[in-house]
Amino acid sequence: MSTSPQTIFVTGTTGFIGSHVLDELLKQGYRVKCAVRPGAKTEHMKSRYSFELETGLVQIINMPDISTAQLQGALEGVDAVIHLASPPGRATAEQTYQGSVEGSLNLLRQAESAGIKRVVITGMIPVKLQHTLTKDEVFRSDDPFAIYESCKILAEQAIWEWARLHPHVDIALIALPLTYGPYTSNFYLPTPAFPGVNTFLYQLIVPDGIYCLTGQYVDVRDAAKAHVGALKSPLVSSLSESKKQIVFGSPQAIQFKEAVAVLSDKRPALQERLIRSDAPTSNEGPLSCDYERIEQMFGVKKQEFIPFEKTLLDTIDDYVSREGLPITMKFFGFALPLLFAVTALAADPPTELVVETTYKPEKCSVFAKKGDSIKVHYTGTLFSNGNKFDSSLDRGDPLPLKLGVGQVIKGWDEGLQGMCVGEKRKLTIPSEKAYGSRGFGSVIPPNSCLVFETELMELNGSSRDEL
């Protein structure tokens, strides 16, 4: 009998959950073929897993586009597949659909052709959507969050339809809520402002932070154990259920008032940084999960889930250890709409202009004042849902204007005064100092509070390098 370790083909190993799954697989003695998009993350992975690459424990497979990838050679000798990959954060609607739906189907078809009988897939628990967009609606939508969540749901529907027609392939789909926890030691942070769900917890050490609306969650380390445990789960043919679609969440729910108290008690050095506003009251309990079935499928016992206090402290400690991370609400891709979608009900729009300095150069001697000619880069989003309505960055040119003379909305005239070149500010502008009851065309509804990320590029014809 062969005693060689099994080989698992995994997508998404450069992601938050996937990096934990990779480490858990190696810990349990598997060999791993990592399907990754070429780029900085892949180069980082090569440097951090050099020993595993040299010894054959890890193999890297370049896969630029999962929806069209030809994987016959890569799937040779593979015992099972774990599919965690999601489309990149800045993908278009069509790319998101192709990556989510067609990508999943392409991987399933080729896995079946390679004789692979077991596939584990990461699913999701919808956060906001009441109506799943159709394929045509996805292509017409300008809501990144609705596009992302709808495509994940459409992908799951397509997966189960494929599974119905191919019952000899055992598929387990693990539906996860918001997933928190520390990054692995090998995780690649592309920029100091790396976005992610963990930022919901990081907001607890931001004085003017925002509470997440839901306390239902799972620790990423438990999620990783579930994915690896699913490789040994009973085959669906031996079960009474028609499919293995399992909700996997912590038996605890976050009580944010208690979370702040834990940080105050256990991390006294952070007391001055703790969120100032009172936590909203909530009667929400833990996610409804069948823990007997979870233990049967994944080998994870209810009492073995990581308690929330450990999740919280490990996550905050990890962030603080990286201290270069800014304490701002700056996100990329779908992460910004996700944050607003989950927190919108927890925060009312301000009634006064809110000005936050997110970056200030060390040398700052000349400041913008009324009457000055300036150039500003900006990105504008709706406070209500995080949707972007305009950005000078998309055009490549900063906006020229004369400050304080009514060329722009009042929130800009007031909020940009006092800036120096190179300084960045976030302006949260109430409707009365924006476009009021008239709105602006089809992109800014009436009575909208607006959020602008701004950077002063020039002041009276002088750039930062010239001042």
Automatic annotation (TrEMBL):
This is peptidylprolyl isomerase. One of its GO terms (molecular function) is peptidyl-prolyl cis-trans isomerase activity. It comes from Moniliophthora roreri (Frosty pod rot fungus). It catalyses: [protein]-peptidylproline (omega=180) = [protein]-peptidylproline (omega=0). Pfam families: Epimerase, FKBP_C. InterPro entries: Epimerase_deHydtase, FKBP2/11, NAD(P)-bd_dom_sf, PPIase_dom_sf, PPIase_FKBP_dom. Residues 371-460 form the PPIase FKBP-type domain. Its EC number is 5.2.1.8. Keywords: Isomerase, Rotamase. One of its GO terms (cellular component) is endoplasmic reticulum.
